[in-house]
Amino acid sequence: MTEIVDQRRSIDALRARLERTTKPRHRLMLETVIAHLEAEVAGSLDALMATLGPDPVYHFWGNGGDYGPKGAEAISAYYAQLVTDRRGVLEFDIDRIVVDDDTVVTEGWYHAINRGSVARAQGFVVDDDNADYLVSRRIVLFWPFDEEGRMEGEDGHGSMNPEMVRKLDPAEIPVAYRRLFEVAST
Question: Within a domain: residue 95?
Answer without folding.
Answer: yes
